[in-house]
């Protein structure tokens, strides 16, 4: 299956760098105020996912353990038509996400899924 | 018109110090690991001070200092605490201009807002809770002739507070004033995007508070925020921010079995019913301002009215007039009192807003105005400015459902009352809402039907201390402002007393 979430080269490099400090990592896509609508990156085990989350993608990055990318199921309902790319920009602060002290910030770039991709993922096209 | 000089330059009303440490136990102390981070102003993008980079060791030390102070502070009379809160308010009032310029320089918001809203509201907040705590009473329940239940309010102890960056001083004060009034000691972590202006405030008032009552530890979320939120010796944690961190805070609180209050944002609908356009009078004018309020504070407000819902029967005319109003929003140097919209608080915030404009266009939303970054020239070219932007589209689009936290309005139309309420409530959040109508009945019905903690009715963006603020649905837990906020910082002690002087007869 083609990936629904990908990472840019800069984001992958940062993930490799952060892994040396924090060990295996995961993402949970945030919503809401302030630093919301951003992907939060945590050491595996720090953030508990559960039945209200959707595993959107397991990211394969060379040299790293697979990185799971989650989103709450309620938020997914509005995001399911889009392909996501985790990018890295200059920034300062993002909740408890581990990249913040590096002066960088993970950020989502989006594009609409094609009809073929929607079919592949079993998502009904929007009316 | 006044243009304040940049802090640190000739003629400035105020200058930041080159460095800020942690404030623990009544004094400034260097961070345990000796590290600092740079703090840039969004006005120009240039660094202006450096900030202690706190870690778990600093949080430990601050929690210790808080408990050391608590025994005495928790036993002060409410009159003593109220006097201190009033003195803090007076100091702030005497230094209003200084505080306003400091906050504007750090956050990028226009000084007209900090002079006329942020700082005056913060001052009033201290005065409100000074009054509220003195007026608060416990309870006595006479259970029968011999038995009485007494209910006392007691402070919780040392509490943790994590502050957002959109109103660095006012949001801190929303949490500080009730916690101090109730007799708690505090470990506060400012946002890493805006860590400095709270220290300007602290410099003005720190002699008024006993050592250890208020401790401020700076740093990043992962390094200082998480150790604070998960600390086993805090008795409560308060957080304003986003949903994923909100969940993490609750997760930590569940480990320590402590209460949380969370304010996690929204996607507030602003509903304009057909009778708004019955006349082109001052009410109509106020509704046009209400529409334009999405640009207040550059849209960096949890209750930003970021979805405008306009009745189809007045849509073309009202939206036309409203867009003319949006065109009048003056963007410029935040230190100019004529400027209405300043800079976004950080580069990543700017990038996120631009990425949402991109997905809005991809999803087929129609751009009516704005839609780009602004380059204001000169030294402001390095700052983070975005044009006030209005997209027309459908409520299912991502720009209608996600908090962009920028001056970006998602506009749509509705046919009649029922559809207005349906669209208004079709969101994961429920923090704020606006309703505009000349009919008192319609205003009341809509206000009650919208699932949000505050529904501004024929007004918007007012934040008085005496009105409860907080969210329905995924917008959070608990309330801020209002006397009821004291409950979030107090324990209830019940003394159940028998004056019978005889056995109950069971044994």
TrEMBL record, chain B:
Q: Which InterPro entries match?
A: Ald_DH/histidinol_DH, Ald_DH_C, Ald_DH_CS_CYS, Ald_DH_CS_GLU, Ald_DH_N, Aldehyde_DH_dom
Record keywords, A-Z? Oxidoreductase
Among the GO molecular function terms of this UniProt record, one is: oxidoreductase activity, acting on the aldehyde or oxo group of donors, NAD or NADP as acceptor
State the Pfam families in the record. Aldedh
Q: Look up the coiled coil feature and give its residue ranges.
A: none
- Look up the domain of life of the source: Bacteria
CDD domains associated with the record = ALDH_ACDHII_AcoD-like
- The catalytic residues are 263
Q: Where are the transmembrane segments?
A: none
**Aldehyde dehydrogenase domain location:** 31-494
Say which family it is in. Belongs to the aldehyde dehydrogenase family.
The protein in question is named Aldehyde dehydrogenase
């Amino acid at each position: 299956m083609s990936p629904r979430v990908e990472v840019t080269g800069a984001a992958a490099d940062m993930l490799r760098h952060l892994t040396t400090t924090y060990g295996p990592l995961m993402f949970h896509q945030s919503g809401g105020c302030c630093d919301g609508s951003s992907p939060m990156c945590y050491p595996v085990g720090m953030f508990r996912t559960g039945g209200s989350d959707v595993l959107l993608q397991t990211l394969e990055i060379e040299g790293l353990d697979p990185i799971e990318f989650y989103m709450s199921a309620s938020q997914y309902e509005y995001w399911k038509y889009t392909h996501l790319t985790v990018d890295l920009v200059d920034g300062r602060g993002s909740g408890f996400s581990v990249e913040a002290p590096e002066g960088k910030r993970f950020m989502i770039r989006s594009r609409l899924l094609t009809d073929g991709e929607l079919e592949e993922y079993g998502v009904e096209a929007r009316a | 018109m006044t243009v304040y000089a940049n802090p640190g330059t000739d003629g400035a009303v105020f200058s930041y110090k080159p460095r800020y440490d942690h404030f623990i136990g009544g004094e400034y102390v260097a961070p345990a690991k000796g590290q600092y981070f740079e703090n840039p102003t969004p006005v120009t993008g240039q660094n202006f001070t450096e900030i202690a980079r706190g870690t778990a060791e600093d949080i430990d030390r601050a929690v210790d200092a808080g408990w050391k102070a608590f025994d005495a502070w928790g036993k002060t009379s409410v009159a003593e605490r109220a006097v201190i809160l009033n003195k803090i308010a007076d100091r702030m009032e005497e230094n209003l201009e200084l505080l306003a310029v400091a906050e504007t320089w750090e956050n990028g918001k226009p000084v007209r807002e900090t002079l006329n809203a942020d700082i005056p509201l913060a001052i009033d907040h201290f005065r409100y809770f000074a009054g509220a705590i003195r007026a608060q009473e416990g309870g006595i329940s006479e259970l029968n002739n011999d038995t009485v239940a007494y209910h006392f309010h007691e402070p919780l102890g040392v509490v943790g507070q994590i502050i957002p960056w959109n109103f660095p001083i006012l949001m801190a004060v929303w949490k500080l004033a009730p916690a101090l009034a109730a007799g708690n000691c505090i470990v506060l972590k400012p946002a890493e995007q805006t860590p400095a202006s709270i220290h300007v405030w602290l410099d003005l008032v720190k002699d008024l508070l006993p050592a250890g009552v208020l401790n401020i530890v700076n740093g990043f979320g992962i390094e200082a925020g998480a150790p604070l939120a998960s600390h086993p010796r805090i008795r409560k944690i308060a957080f304003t921010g986003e949903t994923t961190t909100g969940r993490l805070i609750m997760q930590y609180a569940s480990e320590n079995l402590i209460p949380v209050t969370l304010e996690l944002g929204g996607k507030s609908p602003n509903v304009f019913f057909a009778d708004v356009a019955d006349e082109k009078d001052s009410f109509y004018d106020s509704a046009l301002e209400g529409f334009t309020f999405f640009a207040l504070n550059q849209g960096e407000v949890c209750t930003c009215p970021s979805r405008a819902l306009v009745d189809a029967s007045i849509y073309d005319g009202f939206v036309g007039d409203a867009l003319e109003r949006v065109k009048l929003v003056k963007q410029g140097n935040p230190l100019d009192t004529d400027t209405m919209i300043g800079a976004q608080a950080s580069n990543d915030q700017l990038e996120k807003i631009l990425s949402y404009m991109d997905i809005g266009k991809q999803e087929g939303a129609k751009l009516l105005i704005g839609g780009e970054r602004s380059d204001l020239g000169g030294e402001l070219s390095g700052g983070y400015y975005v044009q006030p932007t209005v997209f027309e589209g459908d409520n299912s689009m991502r720009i209608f459902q996600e908090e962009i936290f920028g001056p970006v309005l998602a506009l749509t139309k509705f046919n009649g009352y029922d559809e207005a309420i349906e669209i208004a409530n079709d969101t994961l959040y429920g923090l704020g809402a606006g309703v505009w109508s000349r009919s008192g009945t319609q205003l009341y019905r809509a206000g009650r039907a919208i699932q949000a903690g505050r529904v501004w009715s024929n007004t918007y963006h007012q934040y008085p201390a005496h009105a409860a603020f907080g969210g329905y649905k995924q917008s959070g837990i608990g309330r801020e402002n209002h006397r009821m906020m004291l409950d979030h910082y107090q324990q209830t002690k019940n003394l159940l007393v028998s004056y019978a002087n005889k056995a109950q007869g069971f044994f």
